[in-house]
Amino acid sequence: MNCKNCNTNLDQLSIYCHNCGGKVIKNRLTLKNIAQHLGETFFNYDNTLIMTIICLIKAPEQVIDSYVKGVRKRYINPISFFGISLTLTGFTIFIIRKFYKNALDVSNLFDSTAMYSDKASQDLIASSSDFSLDYSSLIYASLIPLFAIISWILFNKKKYNFTEHLVIYMYSMSLYSIFSAILGLLILVINANYYLAFSTYFYIATLLYHCYLLKRLFNLTFKEIVLKTLLFIILFTIAFVVLTMGIGIIMAIVMQLNGELK
Description:
Elements: H1 31-42, H2 48-58, H3 60-68, H4 78-99, H5 119-134, H6 136-154, H7 162-191, H8 195-218, H9 222-261
């Protein structure tokens, strides 16, 4: 009998390959063993995904320091973690597009006679909503290097280089995305009208989590974390405004071209 992964010759009683460590599969696929495999992969306490999520909440510096220092088996790697978060984000966007698109209508938060009542404003809001859904993964991914640059400038760049700061935010933003997707879907099912409010409060919770993460990671005092967080927000706001203006210009051009084509 040979290993199906690396073709190494194995003993008939072998459960795992002594060369590559792969599990020896002898039975044909059934729904039962697929369900068992999924359970072992995603819901086992000892699973690296579950362990990574728990440790990122309890002691995030352990996960990040371990990966930076070369530990690769204890926790899920940041790229795989980021991939899982993108998958959940994509699934959430599909559900919102299919069933709950009105949950993203910002105009519901304002009086119908106010500044959002005219057709041009409503069209802009609708276009913004469509744009955020269409390019949410790209926007989300682009935030990570932006956060890393600002963090590298402000938070002890002698300890971590820029690439290592990317690792920090791949972990933290993936954690945010996973919880945002799961809790957001629950909110949509319970009452879709609360989704925008949930998103706002969750942004605040994410900011507080990053303060907690950076404090533990860089051993910052309360005064340092408050000051540097304020500087972080200022620099991010400036960059975000510039980015938003650029996106707004692109959207205006696209809307004008669509109008001309019609």
